Amino acid sequence: MPTTTTAAPAAPAPRPLGAVLTTETRLFLREPGSLFWILVFPAVLLTILGLVPSFREADDGLGGRRVVDIYVPVAVLLAMIMAGLQAMPPVLTGYRERGILRRMSATPVRPSALLLAQITLHGAAALGSAVLVMAVGRAGFGVRLPEQLPGYALSLLLAVACVLALGAAVCALAPTTKAATAVGSVAYLLMMFTAGVWVPVQVMPGLLRTVVEFTPFGAASQALDQAASGSWPGWTHLAVMAVWTAVLGALSARLFRWE
């Protein structure tokens, strides 16, 4: 009597995006420099500032708050700037320069999956650093956690989207890794100033403060500070971040070259 055999069902093929994300995560974790500057350095900077005695005293010029309170959102934004402008552009332009993106276009894995994986990784690292900064501020120096949590979360997500769109625009405009590093470094210094790393936005002179508030990270710094103090972030600041994200995202999508 003839017998029939049924072939065992083939194991499902791994999804291209999942496989790319797994591979890129492993490569990202092998870069201690990027991990330090994104995840650790902002918390270290906040710790150094918090150890200055005068920075832990209430200041009437800051509405009764302390300098260390003001610098928590600044340190949060610093991690985002590191991720979007210093870490991500050289990786993507390096892949393009070495022809990796061109070769990927001939496989089931599209180059866009690599771009999405890089955005996901660097965005997650920036958000993880934000959590670490807030934990250090709270545990080490008694900084209050954000009182307007939904507004703070919205501001945080908009700021991450904005910096990643800016990083993607740098990748689109820079033809080589060296060019991406140079352009990213210039943008990095400008964004650090507007985020208030050297002078908090809240204490900038009137006209300068008004101009800075219309930059991506000037608006983000104000929105995060307002939410941390218990107020809903100003709609103008949220709109500024949303517009910058849309404009930079559209620019990078239009100009990005896979080879």
Structure description:
With 259 residues, this protein is mainly α. The protein has one domain. 71% of the residues lie in helices and 0% in strands. Helix 5 packs across helix 6, helix 7 crosses helix 9 and helix 9 packs antiparallel against helix 10. The N terminus is likely disordered.
Total helical segments = 10
Our count of domains comes out at 1
Average pLDDT over all residues: 85
Largest sheet: none
Strand-pairing-aware structural class: mainly alpha
Query: Hey, roughly how much beta strand do the residues contain?
Result: under 5%
Assign an overall shape. globular
- Taking all Cα atoms into account, the compactness measure Rg is 21 Å
Order of helices and strands: HHHHHHHHHH
Low-confidence stretches: 1-14
Helicity level: over 70%
Question: What distance lies between the first and last C-alpha atoms, to the nearest angstrom?
Answer: 61 Å
Tally of DSSP β-strands: 0
